[in-house]
Amino acid sequence: MKRRLFLKTTAASFGLATVGMASAQPDRDKYRPGGPKLGSSKSINLNAFHTNEELTKELETIDRKSDRVSLEEIGRSAGRNDPIWEVQVGNGDTKVHLITQIHGDEAIGTEVALKVIKSLGMSNSRQANHILDNLSFTIIPRVNPDGAMYHYDFDGDGDAEWVGRRQNTQSWAEGESEYRPYYYSTSPGGDPGYDMNRDFNIRPPSEFNPRTDDKEEWWSDEQYLDMPYEGYTLFGSGLRLAPEVRAVTESFIDADPDYAITHHHKGGNLYPDTGDENKPAKQTLMSVMAAYGEDYLERSPFYPATHEPVTEAVNPFLDYETSTRSIKLNSLVIDALAQRGNSIFDSITRYGYYPLWGSYLDSLSPNIANDGDSVAGMLYEVAYQTDDLGQKGLGRQMELTKVGFLESFDALADDPELADYSVETYFDTPLYGEGIQSR
Ligand SMILES: [Zn+2]
C-alpha cells in the first residue's frame, strides 16, 4: 500500500508547530490548517485569556443568570482532571455543534465562544432572539483544558512560563493500542500528550472501540492506523485514546447536528498576491475551510495531482447535498464578514481541503450518530498575533470575530438551507498560501 507523503511529513513536523520548517513540507501542507505558525509562543501574553478556573466561574455565572443556557460537565481532561464544559442554548430546529480550543495553544476561539454564549444567553436583542428561535447550539468551549494551561520553562530561566500547548497531557501505555500512534508527542516541555484533532474515529463507539478492536495488519510503520472502512482505507485514523475526544464524540452523537463548526488559530500570513497593484499585499486574519465529498472532487486543489485514492482529496462519506451546504456555510461566513467592509475581514482566505481521518470534522461529519444523515461542516482559523497586531488589536479582533459569528448565525437562522448563497463564493476565495514564497 502506498502511503501518502503528507501524513509522514505531518508526523515529522509534529510538535514543532511554533517554529518554521515550511521548507521540509510538501506543497500541499502550506494550504492546510495546523501548519507552522509564525512568531514564537513567547510573544503571546496568555494573561489576556481565561484560566480553566476562570472559565468555569464565568460559565457558571452565565448559567445562573440566564434561563436560556444550560451548562453540563461532559468529561474531565486526561492530565489535570479539569472539567470539559458543554453549553446548550437555543430552541430552533437547526442544530449547530461548535467546538473551540481542541489545540490548547489556540485560545481565541474559546474567548469568542464565551462572548457569543453571553450574547445569546443574556441579550434581548432582535438578533439574539431571531438566532435562538431558529437555531439550537451545543458548544464545547475549550476541548483541551490541559493544553490551555500548559506551563514549561520556555526560555530556560528556571521558571515555568504559561505558554499553552497543542496536545493534552496523557501518556501512552504499552498495550493501550497495538502501537503508539503518530500523533503522540512529548513536545515542547517533555510531557506526553496527544494531538486530539487526530484522535477521532469514524466508527461509532457503540459498535467499535479502535483501541481494542484494531487489527495488527491495519497498522503501517508501527504508528499509523490505516483503517479499512466501507471499501476505503482511512489513513491515519484516530484511536479515541483521549477522554476529551470521547466526550466530544458523545456530545456530537447526542446533539445530532445539522452543522458542525471547529475553530483554530493560524500564524499571520500575507494575503495572496492577486497581481492587482491596487490591492496591496496584507495580512489575512481569517481562513475558512469546508469539508466536502466526491461530487466536488474536480474542485480539489490536490486532485488529480495526488491521484488515488480519493480519500486523500475528499471525504467520500459526504453526499452532494451535505457537501453543498458545507461549502455554502463557508460562503455565508465569507459574505457576512466581507459585507462589514472592515479591513480585518476583507482578506479572508480558504484552505485547500483534504481529509484528516482522525480529525473532528472528517471523522464526525459523516455522522456516526443514529440517523445516518451527514453533517455540513466548516473550520475557521483566525490569526493569533502578529508583529503589527498587539494586545489591543487582539481584543478588537476578538470583538469583531464575535460580531462576525453572530451575523453568520443570523443569516443561517434566516435560511438553514442557505439557498441564497453560492458555492462559487467559496471557490473564488483565494487559497491560503497562494503567492507566498516562504514563511
Ligand atoms: Zn488547531
Automatic annotation (TrEMBL):
Keyword RNA-binding applies: no
GO cellular component, one term: extracellular space
Keyword Iron-sulfur (UniProt): no
Cofactor(s) of this protein: Zn(2+)
GO molecular function term, any single one: zinc ion binding
SMART domains in the cross-refs: Zn_pept (SM00631)
Record keywords: Carboxypeptidase, Hydrolase, Metalloprotease, Protease, Zinc
GO biological process, one term: proteolysis
Domain Peptidase M14 residue range list: 49-287
Family in the record: Belongs to the peptidase M14 family.
Protein known as: Zinc carboxypeptidase
Species: Halalkalicoccus paucihalophilus
